[in-house]
User: Fold these one by one.
Assistant:
Number 1:
Amino acid sequence: MTVLLLQILALRILALSILALSGGLELLPLEQPPALPESAIQASQALGVETDSPAGSPGQYPAGVAWWGTWEGATREARRSGKPILLLSAAPQCHGIPGIW
Amino acid sequence: MDQSLWSDPLVIEASRKFVCARLATYEDAGEGKFLEGLYRGRSGQLENTVFVMLTSDGKTRLSRSGRSPTMVFGGSVGWEGTVLALEMGNIAERHPPTKKPEASTGPALPVAKDVRRAVNIAACDRLPLVISGGLDDEQLQSLAAIGWTEPYIGRLGWASTSDPSHLKSVGIDKPSSGIWVVQPDNFGLQVEVIAKLPADADRATIRKALDLALETKRPSQKRTRSHVQQGQRLGKNWDTEIPVSDPGISPQGRGRPSRPPGG
């Protein structure tokens, strides 16, 4: 078990090292996030919508992958940029109910 | 789709070295055939999810194909993101961009197939959405240039249309040409307008509207089971373009195709 945990830890360190060496990882100092505007908190409370951001945290959305939504658009961009393609497909409904992957 | 995998900072950082295509399964007949050619499960049918990495011409596989990155690359529970980022880094190193893009042409807007699907997908991603209506090429290019800068990359959904009825169908009154920054409802069927801008809005005005969306809205919390139960209770339905064929979903739970297969 200990050996397995050490292997996992080594893998994580290796991944971080490779990204850091390739310039793909920038270590930034932690900053205190600005407070969420009161209006946003009130709006969420009024709607009775639960959110993933705790009250008082910024309304900023976390960074995300920039997805191309169609194969046509993606291949046009791949031709333009010469970048390889990461292709994923997922159904934007569950049991016929929209709004969830 | 495991959203936690795609919100891993290592994966997001590595994703910038790729063109990341996320197709909506069962929402386009042509793409469905293409996906079937890439991966079929034991059932021989197109399943809910497909994952593969390809060369920039889309013709050569750079990884095995499967239902998910974890199926293709492995990874212990909790470490799937690390393994995926590592594999992405390896592939990007072995397959750097084959050309340098011309400075004069930036990437286009990464729009969804249509407004209806863009609203649903933004709801799935729990992101605000930007819809352009009736913009000319120059205005679209200007909007795209903003969309591909920080802090907007990967934080907004995008849609474009020249058909006012598409805007009306998601709850935008009096559609005209312009830019709408909207928040999809929980089920991705209707929108709440956060800001409406004229088609010729300058960049500072557009940025201000996008900032407003990101600063005042927050991603809603969603749990699959309760979301589905609530949707069934409220009679929310989604019509797919082609029939759902995933063997893991019972025929009763597959929703309805909007038109006959192949039609």
Note: Residues 13 and 22 of chain A are 14 Å apart (CA to CA).
Number 2:
Amino acid sequence: MKRRGNWRDSFSLVELTLALGIAAVCLISVFGLLPVGLKSNHNAISQSASASIIAAVVADMRATPKAATTSTQYAVSFGTAKTIYFDNEGAIAASFGPTSRYRLDIEFPPNPTAGAATFAYLKVTWPAAASHASATGASEVFVAFDRN
Amino acid sequence: MRHFIRAFTLVEILIAISLLGILTLLLSRLFNSAAITTSMSGKRMESEGQIRPLLDRMAIDFAQMAKRADLDFYGKGTADGGAMTGNDRIAFFSMVPGDYPSTGSESPFSVIAYKVNSSLAAANAAVYTRFQRMARGLVMNGDSSAINDGPIAFAPVNISTVWTSVTSNATTDSKYEIAGPQVFRFEYYYLLTNGTFSTTPWDPSLAGHASPAGMRDVAAVVAAMATLDSRSRVLLTNPQVATISGTLIDYAPGSGPGWLLTQWQNALNTPTNASVQALPRSIIAGIRLYERHFYLAPTPQ
């Protein structure tokens, strides 16, 4: 009888499996948070970067002298829609490349009033390869320039 | 004997422990790379978050610049400003609120000045190699005993003769405040209304144009800045930051936008200076470069 009591003290296979199962569920829920955190971090960076891209392009367009039709820094021609690709560091490319991360589309909605403001519509979307409809994030701004 | 068979053997436990060890190792590597990614993006967010309000502030200062032929402009290329090697300085009158004296009738004008301090005095260690802004509010009824507080100085009085601290990076003035603690390199040039880039704030090809004259020929001031996030910054001494700053070259007249940042990025990627080469790559990688056009409101003709 005493011997029987001895082996009862060790864990059974069922107990061990249950313990492992509980541990696995805990671990999975903890590791499940990791990609969520990274994703929100990534999204925050994209939002912040898109804001600075828009600010830089608008500043460049606003600084374009009246005599010139094309902005100096990003070569935006007033009245001509343009797409520019930006990489992580803010470097630009005219076409999609392996380092492209943001896509900026500039459109010039017509302003029928003669001699009035020049309108521009800027939209940054990411990832750069995605179309507007399938982009995971976007920020946009509508600006008016005095080009008279 | 049955109860012995049911218990784990030493070999089984060893295998289980080693499997657990391998799994833990893999997971810790995963966590490690996640931590590196988040810390790098944290640095980047910090740089972006701090430079944005500064650039916005500067955009307002420049857009509100008081542009009149009888109001002085101190900067690169002017008679008193000169060529400016290393970090640049700039000073002008602007219609923005400033730090007004406690008495007097406040005018809407302030003297705005920027520089990266280069004072080596021990007392100035907190501002050395940091970007400073002065917004000195001017009063309507300033007297000669306190001319620094106004009134606005009309030609032929220059900004540099009244507010002498604007002429040197090494001079400290309590009216200068740290505007960009991360910015350690500041360089600018002018976009003229004829569409060319210059280190002279007027268009010499036009007859009779030989002074800023209310910045009539300048469409925008293009500023380039280099920033270092605070977590990388604490790992460097001020002289080390000054050394990095020294390897970032001056703007060469005639170069277009982007040229300066390309030169700076190349200088950081393949440093020629031995003491910069010795710095950890992670610190150099934390340096971020910005270039921004600051539009000046057109001069009324």
Note: Chain B touches chain A through 41 residues (CB under 8 Å).
